[in-house]
Design a protein that fits this description.
It comes from Coleophoma cylindrospora. Keywords: Methyltransferase, Phosphoprotein, S-adenosyl-L-methionine, Transferase. InterPro entries: SAM-dependent_MTases_sf (IPR029063), TPMT (IPR008854). It is built from 7 helices and 7 strands, in the order αααβαβαββαβαββ. By secondary structure, it is α/β, with parallel strands linked by helices. Helix 5 links the parallel strand 2 (87-92) and strand 3 (125-129). The model has no long low-confidence stretch (mean pLDDT 93).
């Protein structure tokens, strides 16, 4: 019997069917993307790379900074950001995933990784069920119009069909506050470009093409390789890459068969507030 794959689950399904299918998979307990713990790369950023975190010029100065984790699943990173003082919002299209997230939140007090650091007041946690691409899902977010100071993207872009990538770049641009930071944990970077998905192959150059050009459709050849020669210039309103590096460690899925770390971290901000 062949091993079940996410690709097979989504093959021949229209993008409009994807949200309900993700929920079905949570109900069925088939969740190969669930890592079981917060991202080591995010923890590294929060503890060792403060120069890459949101700047003091954020529109939310004087209030707790707001963080968003789209496609949050069980909410490991949401709870971690809360422990570092952010008002943290976990967004998912699956209500079943958020049921698990609420259960995990009740248990987090027993886990060392979620302990607040000295002098840090824990931020609030909120769970949002709905579509990342609509504003309705954010109707209960306080001061939503100011944007989010920190957005964490991992196993979210790679779960989206290619037809939604331009909308993803546009939405990240819209949701990120002036002075805010978008962290992309780039994955999977070493998957063959013609292998399909989800998870869809995402070498770093895809992020580097998308985010400076919000809303622009990218072109790929018949092997799924980005046609870089047809990229237009970056938009003045696009996001700017502030850092690109490999973390010290990442989830097990981010290593190749020989044990080489393949994930990258990119940090992005608005051109006029970097």
């Amino acid at each position: 019997m062949s091993e079940r794959t996410l690709k097979a689950d989504f093959e021949n399904r229209a993008p409009s069917e994807h949200p309900s299918r993700w929920n079905d998979l949570w109900v069925e307990g088939f969740t190969p993307w669930d890592r079981g713990l917060p991202s080591p790369a995010l923890l590294e950023l929060l503890t060792e790379r403060p120069e890459l975190l949101p700047v003091s010029g954020s529109t939310n100065t004087g209030k707790k900074l707001k963080a968003l984790v789209p496609g949050c699943g069980k909410g490991y990173e949401v709870l971690l950001l809360s422990a570092f003082g952010y008002d943290a919002y976990g967004l998912d299209v699956s209500e079943k995933a958020l049921e698990f997230a609420r259960e995990h939140e009740k248990e987090m007090g027993s886990q060392e990784v979620y302990k607040t650091r000295e002098g840090v007041e824990r931020g609030k946690v909120a769970w949002l069920c709905g579509d990342f691409f609509t504003s309705d899902v954010f109707k209960d977010v306080q001061d939503f119009e100011t944007g989010f100071d920190f957005i964490y993207d991992y196993t979210f872009l790679c779960a989206l069909p290619l037809s939604l990538r331009s909308k993803w770049s546009q939405r990240q641009n819209e949701l990120l506050a002036p002075g805010g930071r978008l962290m992309c944990l780039e994955f999977p970077t070493n998957k063959p470009t013609n292998s399909g998905g989800p998870p869809w192959p995402l070498p770093p150059k895809i992020y580097q093409a998308l985010l400076p050009r919000p809303g622009v459709e990218l072109k790929y050849d018949d092997q799924g390789v980005l046609v870089e020669s047809e990229l237009g210039p970056p938009s003045p309103k696009g996001l700017m890459a502030l850092a690109h590096y490999q973390p010290k460690k990442t989830h097990k899925a981010g290593y190749d068969a020989e044990g080489k770390l393949m994930d990258f971290v990119s940090i992005w901000g608005h051109n006029d507030s970097a």
